[in-house]
Design brief:
This protein is an alpha/beta fold. It has helices at 2-23, 35-41, 59-68, 75-91, 95-106, 113-130, 133-146, 151-163, 167-180, 185-229, 267-271, 309-316, 356-360, 382-388; strands spanning 232-235, 238-239, 276-277, 283-291, 296-304, 335-341, 346-350, 366-368, 373-378, 392-395. Residues 277-382 form the Cns1/TTC4 wheel domain.
């Protein structure tokens, strides 16, 4: 509907234009009395060229003459024409063509250093408005080499450095400019902005460094706690091995913690949770309960290592049973828990009254992807019998 409305508006506008065109005479059209005079102004139809060509009265002829006799002019004259051409493009915000004109002017290699400086600063301005900050800075730098006190070059250089977040360098440009132009307000404003942003960037860098150090310290403490308990992490399907102590980049001991990468604790990416150490020194793990009979699962984001399995089972299967348990048989007292040892293809049955820590410390329990997982079956069910057929099952000792 919107497209149709736009089309209607466009058609109405065109009809109005055509109606107006029919009733209004074209003011600049040739007529019987002046057509020969008007034709004489067009270079293609001129019978004789004027002795002196004024660009104001004969702009087309002046342009043609410039093109034909360009080689007869000095490099300075050619560069000046190209500069003026670039300025016209710049006024029209046609920055790409302005750059081409200024570049062509610089290629004339004229000896007028003042003109070359202007060409460079103008090209820097065109690059700046196109977002080519590095090219703009290069041109401002080149102009500054020719004229160290050139105000436009100094201002443009400072602006580019600000955009590139090189705040210290921006201050240097401003200081150089203020030395030559101590009262220039633009340079004063740029310096104040650069100084403010420099201090803010330094503050953010200090905060980031402090946070990085804090995170590193927390990782050290976490992995040290896991190592101290003898809990084994699975990394790329292999048990994580702790190497001997080594020095980290800050000179501190990495304590054999595999560069603190936590590669064996990657559950946060998949679940949004990760094992953590609370202020009392207890570990809290993200734990997954699997119900293969119904292809369902439960996720506990923070299972304290000192809590027993029955504590959570009593909550999950208490007064309100899950909707998928249509036979109402998943009662806490009916449930059996197992963890799997994939290497030995063995299931270990876990006593629900056992703490999570005791299970994780078992020599055949491996934490995969940072999240311990346990299979939950109903004691005496036909599915349990079928599921365990052919599998080696051991009770947790």
């Amino acid at each position: 509907m919107a497209s149709s409305a736009l089309q209607d508006d466009s058609d109405d506008g065109m009809d109005e234009f055509i109606d107006k065109f029919r009733t209004h005479k074209y003011k600049n059209a040739f007529n019987e009395s002046n057509w020969e005079e008007e034709f004489e102004k067009v270079p293609m139809f001129m019978k004789t060229a004027p002795e002196e060509i004024d660009p104001k009265t004969h702009p087309e002829l002046a342009c043609l003459q410039s093109m034909i006799h360009d080689d007869d002019r000095t490099p300075e004259e050619q560069a000046m024409s190209l500069k003026n051409e670039g300025n016209e493009y710049f006024k029209e915000k046609n920055y790409k063509n302005a750059i081409l004109s200024y570049t062509a002017g610089l290629k004339k290699n004229c000896g007028d250093q003042e003109l070359n400086t202007v060409l460079l600063t103008n090209r820097a301005a065109a690059h700046f408005y196109l977002g080519n900050m590095r090219s703009a800075l290069n041109d401002a730098t080149a102009a500054k080499k020719i004229r160290p006190d050139h105000l436009k070059a100094l201002v443009r250089g400072a602006q580019c450095c600000l955009e590139l977040r090189n705040f210290a360098e921006a201050i240097q440009w401003c200081d150089a400019g203020l030395k030559a132009h101590p009262t220039d307000k633009k340079l004063q404003e740029l310096r104040a902005a650069a100084d403010k942003q420099k201090r803010a960037a330094e503050r953010d860098a200090r905060k980031a460094k402090a946070q990085k150090k804090k995170t590193r310290t927390e990782k050290e403490a976490l992995l040290a706690a896991i190592k101290e308990r003898g809990i084994k992490l699975m990394q790329h399907n292999k048990v994580r091995q702790h190497s001997s102590d080594s020095e980290d980049e800050d000179g501190g001991s990495a304590r054999g913690l595999a560069e603190l990468s936590l590669d064996g604790l990657s559950s946060q990416e998949a679940t949004g949770a990760q094992v953590f150490l609370d202020p009392q020194g207890s570990l809290h793990w993200p734990v997954l309960f699997l119900y293969p009979e119904h292809q369902q699962s439960d996720f506990i984001s923070a299972f304290c290592e000192n809590s027993c399995f029955i504590d959570h089972l009593a909550v999950m299967f208490g007064e309100e049973l899950p909707p998928w348990d249509t036979d109402r048989k998943y009662l806490p007292q009916n449930l059996q828990l197992f963890f799997e040892d994939e290497e030995k293809d063995t299931l270990y049955q876990v006593d629900p009254e056992t703490s999570l820590l005791k299970v994780l410390q078992h020599n055949r329990c491996f934490v995969k992807a940072g999240s311990p997982s346990f299979i939950v079956l109903v004691n005496g069910s036909s599915f349990r019998t079928q599921f365990l057929t052919g599998k080696k099952v051991q009770r947790l000792s």
